[in-house]
């Protein structure tokens, strides 16, 4: 009969043998590295640093100190800011920190969901699921890209191709990325409009649209198409619409065009919004068919004059000139020509009218130039219109300078003393060819009050330009004018500057 002590020793030996034959591969390696080969299974487990709660695991208390970098990904596909994993260390997989659920256990909590080994999610409050975590001998492997982010593949057209961790569709949660994306997609169906107008969620939605399959994107599109006009003028929704433009099919893009042009001046009102302008610009970039262009231009042309003078809407006019062929812009330019004076005398409009003249061809270009010529006398002394007249002179089109000179003949002395008109007169001397500059100089010299130009705040610049452009007897007449009035010029600030410049040029 064996003693109690010997019986206990035999029992422990039997247990040690049976445990070693059934222990996982990971524990076998652990025991093989121990300094005491005769230790029991209970002794080995007593030295393991396994917390009773997956949320009380301390990294500083861990015997495995590896260099790491925290990885944070945004929902709905990544780990949120409250969970961190270490992408690379000596082990295959990551070491959980104090904020990470126990990934080794078949059931753990994640993002307020209870995750099971079968890939199911239960929407329950975050709770501690386990009291006695068991070690299976297999560590989770978390693939990452070179920058520490979870790898994700998309196809060339922007839609999903494979899982978030590669083509196999598996991630660290134990279920496929497609499953997780589908769960997110189903949860937020019917709420996409609310997400699109939210400052934070609209960014997530923009990135999510690129990861959806074509079928899923079509469902989202149907949910938003009826609200696209409101979204285009929304401070946040317009960015979602811009992303949709990039992913839409030709048929879906046509639906958007029909939606924004179904009411009179609806597209014009959208363009007058600073947010809507950018959405319309993005739409114009992806317009391909002639039917779409005709529809867009028919809706924009009646409001061309309003758009040209608007600080936001004028961008759409310039975009049409850049993106569409000359034939498609005919109606729009025709409206601009008919409203030439109103546009040219506007701060924004004068900047639009100049490229309109540049892009126009044939008869339409002649009509725009003729419209400016008709109002040249008034435009030349306008604070904004004078820039349009100067632009015509700078183009160097044959006959334009002569036509403008005839329109302004007899008024050059008055314009030379005008703050804005003096710029036009100087432009004649700088860019026009003979004999127009000579005619203007003679008109100024024959005026009985010509000496007043020498001391005028604006006229003195005209005299300076006339001296630089004139030759022969005209230049001699101008020089004689300055010499005769030098004493008067000495007592005037502007005359003194002109006289100093004149004397310096003679040295």
TrEMBL record:
Signal peptide coordinates: none
Entry keyword Membrane: no
Pumilio repeat start-end pairs: 223-259, 262-298, 334-370, 407-442, 443-483
Chain intervals with Low complexity compositional bias: 1-23
CDD domains, per database record: Pumilio
Classification via InterPro entries: ARM-like, ARM-type_fold, PUM-HD, Pumilio_RNA-bd, Pumilio_RNA-bd_rpt
GO molecular function, one term: mRNA binding
Transmembrane segment boundaries: none
Keyword Repeat in annotation: yes
Domain PUM-HD per the UniProt entry, residue ranges: 165-506
Location of region: Disordered: 1-33
Keywords for the protein's UniProt record, in alphabetical order: Repeat, RNA-binding, Translation regulation
Superkingdom: Eukaryota
GO biological process entries: regulation of translation
Function, as annotated: Sequence-specific RNA-binding protein that regulates translation and mRNA stability by binding the 3'-UTR of target mRNAs.
The protein's name in its UniProt record: PUM-HD domain-containing protein
Organism this protein belongs to: Vigna angularis var. angularis
